[in-house]
Design brief:
The complex is a heterodimer of chains A (87) and B (148). By secondary structure, chain A is α+β, with helices and mostly antiparallel strands. Helices cover 36% and strands 23% of the residues of chain A. In chain A, a hairpin with a 2-residue loop joins strand 2 and strand 3. The N and C termini of chain A lie far apart (63 Å). By secondary structure, chain B is mostly beta strands. Chain B has a single domain, classed as Roll (BH3618-like), CATH 2.30.290. In chain B, 8% of the residues lie in helices and 36% in strands. In chain B, the strands form 2 sheets. In chain B, strands 3, 4, 5, 6, 7, 8, 9, 10 and 11 form a 9-stranded antiparallel sheet that branches. Chain B has a two-stranded antiparallel sheet with strand order 1-2. In chain B, a hairpin with a 4-residue loop joins strand 9 and strand 10. The chains are: A alpha+beta (87), B mainly beta (148). Chains A and B meet through helix 1 and helix 2 of A and strand 6, helix 1 and strand 7 of B.
Amino acid sequence: MLVLSRQLDETIMIGAQIEVTVVDVRGDKVRLGINAPRNVQVHRKEVFEAIRNENTQSISVQMDDLEAADENLRTMRRHKPPRSQST
Amino acid sequence: MLIDTSRFGQIEVEQSRVINFPNGILGFPSHNSYVLLQPTEDSHFYWLQAVDRADLTFVVTDPSLFVTNYRVPLKTEQSQELGISNLEQAQVFVIVNKRGHVLTGNLQGPLVINVKDKIGEQLVLSDRRFTTRVPLTELQSPVEAVAV
C-alpha cells in the first residue's frame, strides 16, 4: 500500500480527476473531502462489504422457503379486508 | 440456449432474455449474464440465475410489494450506463435472504434492471434507513390465518 503523509488542507490526486483533501483532523477522526467525476461511486468501505457479504449469503435460499413465503402472502391477501373508499 | 442450474436442472432460455450486468453483482464480479425466472405465475419472487454458473442463483423480489417509501435515487450517469431513457424501462429488485423464519431484503444494494435492453447493475445506497437486512415476510403461517 502506498502511504503518504498529508497535513490539514493538503490534497492527493488519484489519476487526473480524483482529489482527496484532508478537511479536518480531530483526535482519531479524519474528515476527507473528495472531488471525483460523477460516474465514480464513492462510499464507505463498510457499506460495500455489507452488501457483498449479504449477496454471498443470499445464494443459499431454497425453493421450499419461497413456496412457504408465497403461500403465506397469498393467505394474507385473501384475509385482508377490502379497502374502503371512504376517508 | 441451454443453461445448467443446480435448482432446476438444465433449462432452455431464449437468448433475448439474458440480462447483462457489466460490473457483475458485488462479490461475483466475473459473472455478468443472468436470466430472470418466475417459479409460478402468481409468485412474489423471482430467481436471478447466472448463465455460466449453475449454483449462482439469487432470489429477488419487487420491494414495493413489501416496503412503502422506498425510492432508489438514480443519478444521470447511472441511467446512461444502464441505457435508461425513461423510467418505465427501469425495474428495481432487491435480493432476498433468509434469517431464521424471516425473509429479508437487501434494500441497501438494490438491483436496477433496464428491462427493455436487458442491462442491470447493483447500486450502493448511502441512505442509512435502508439496510442489507430489512424484514419482508415471515415463513411460518400467521396465527390469524390458521384460526380462520
